[in-house]
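User: I'm preparing a small set of examples for a lab meeting where we compare how different chains pack in three dimensions. I only have the primary sequence for this one, and I'd like the structure in token form so I can line it up with the others. Please keep the answer compact; I'll paste it straight into my notes.
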Amino acid sequence: MMRPLFLLHIGIAVALACGPAVPATAGIYSFIDENGTIHFSNAPKDPRFNDKNQVTYLRKYRKQQDIREFDYYIRQAASRYEIDPHLIRAVVATESNYDSYAVSRRGARGLMQLMPATAGDMAVNNSFNARQNIEGGCRYLRRLLNMFDENLHLALAAYNAGPGTVKKYQSIPPYRETQEYVRSVLSKFQLYKSKRIYRDQ
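Assistant: Understood. Below is the structure token output for the 201-residue chain.
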């Protein structure tokens, strides 16, 4: 007999809230077997666990609790580096979807997905520390904005593809990933500004 779904949800949510955060590369996965039993795992070996069955809403449980703290750091960094806080939120949302433990295939880490070398240059000792990551990411974004004369499109392209690549092409590089990245950040930026999703105190 199938166990009550809501009880499983509560149990896992409590485990996530009380235990250490699960890195983005792990995630939580589920599937329902032929007997109607729901299975969950953060280290799936059974082929029935797959990306389509990732329980993304469980990750949101932690994000909702952390997002206010993140936003405090964002507003601090926005003031310090003279960057619109909505832009920082758009970068964070695009880079990691507010997952402070996110790790990309290339090794970028944390909320603003800092590569280890960039994190070192920005004096970030722990990229998984939300305050340090946001501080370092904003310091780097300010450097890029200065480098490209406040041209937001080029600065964002450089954040994704590197400043050397943008200088080489003197425009947004002809890379699909970079072009989509710039569009995504700008779209979220305008959405946050127009709908006032966040309201600074």
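A couple of notes for your slides: The longest helix spans residues 56-81. The two ends are 51 Å apart (CA to CA).

User: Perfect, thanks.
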